[in-house]
DNA sequence: TTGTATGCGTTATCAC
DNA sequence: GTGATAACGCATACAA
């Protein structure tokens, strides 16, 4: 079933069918009706490969996700969901590529061979080979997160340093003097995961500015790890009265550890951080946290990418999100000890 | 950058370059080396669209996921992850398509226009338009889950009826006489979501067989909903001593409600079900449950699809998984009341 | 062992 | 307002 078949049955030239479909030149009403009727009858759809070959674009975006073997966080999932949604809205398809581990071939396949018109990259590290590779491939791309030297790339990110600093200031205002920062997993941080490093820097700066003492600790990205981490933390630093965190997946475990230690939140202990809305609201009591606007960010990433594809020479654009901290119920005045 | 350019620089015919790449006929060592050197130097990769047009296949699979707006469950995420992984392993790309809601266009785009060689469909309902549509489109597809009339389609599913029945028998053996079944969300069940209906049927049959009393209740797929649901349940049916569930996302809420009601698990109350391993292990105490082998199933779905593509006339294949129930710590003898 | 020629299904340029 | 035709980049049957 191809455009020639439609043309033959409608008794017109192939080009006429093409123009009926694209509307790029005027076609008499009668012929258009006849062609459309045949298209309808045979349920004809243009062949995507032929069109891509001729037009030089695929109407497809590549989305490079973290290796799926390690569970995606809620936030990452939100990005994927919103990117797919926004792409669909722009009549674009999304080609998924896991990266990292032994998935180099998949990544290479997606970015070479003109398979996609552009790429959205997630889970960026301060130094990121994939960014280097995309730069050299000359394929338009936008990153969610940004490398250390991202002046020339288009990106969109959450301002972890600022958000974590705000959490520290909030707790300091409440009288807390000894805080802990619960980071993402040690492997991730060691690999140069941007949010981990930037949030830690923000924590350090704010703690210093307010003259507090602060300890930081890496924590596996899951409940059991969070529980163990906080147990150790409470053990080693009995004076800590508040936690600041960006590790949403560890929250259920953190909660269990505090409960187990007989610490009531927020009476005996406060906690605040950056987390997907869902995690924050599921915390008991609901978590005072900056809600990452993952849905909005995915949408924005697609818009930026389309802009970049449309105007390759435009100067790079960066967007840094610093959503307000939603005051919920997990922070309160520092306890007397 | 195309094959002709490589040919010119290497001083050979285009077909020779093509054969060097595909290896489909022997090429003298010297010429092959020369060609490969040029390919390497220019970092040439065959154009995917041209290849797809010529070969009549795209080396791409379509993966139709539930509308991403509603959070994907862990299990669904496991399917996506393993499908992408298995596809990458077979050097195939995965085109993602959200379905349901206002995403019909995306779905249509993926299945028409020969954009993919085959489709994997998730989150199947007993009556499912998408299955009908794919049947009529004549595109090879495999479903994870199965419709009521799935004799002629290739599918792979979890045997919810059997697994839930096993949970009931397990609890009955422990002396429980009054059980409750916590289903997925009312909307999902009303929409004809297969697992919900089949699990309920299995529950009803097993309860009848053992002469127990059973109540069933639909429950939103999230923690807060689970908490509210179980509160109502305990209120209305004080004699219930055990819950059987397929609603993994509600588990944290169920746990909170039981705790809040002062019921210790498993001393005062037992709970068992079907859940992703992660949810089961995060439950306190760890949940006695059938661990859905999501990773294995995604892999299998890809294998089945490739088989179906390779042999279009082969009789349909069905795989029903009934993994054993992992005995953990959430079930115990019925309490005296 | 290598080269030549053709067609996959579109879109767009040119001629009418 | 419409039709014929030349690419797009590749794979392969056929010729040498």
TrEMBL record, chains A, B:
Superkingdom: Bacteria
MF terms from GO for this chain are: DNA binding
Q: Which InterPro entries match?
A: HTH_LacI (IPR000843), LacI/GalR-like_sensor (IPR046335), Lambda_DNA-bd_dom_sf (IPR010982), Peripla_BP_I (IPR028082)
Q: Is Chloroplast found in the keyword set?
A: no
Keyword list (alphabetical) reads: DNA-binding, Transcription, Transcription regulation
Q: Does the keyword Membrane apply?
A: no
Q: Which Gene3D superfamilies match?
A: 3.40.50.2300, lambda repressor-like DNA-binding domains
Q: Which residues form the HTH lacI-type domain?
A: 1-55
Q: Which PANTHER family does the entry mention?
A: LACI-RELATED TRANSCRIPTIONAL REPRESSOR, LACTOSE OPERON REPRESSOR
What is the protein name given in its UniProt record? LacI family DNA-binding transcriptional regulator
Species of provenance: Dactylosporangium darangshiense
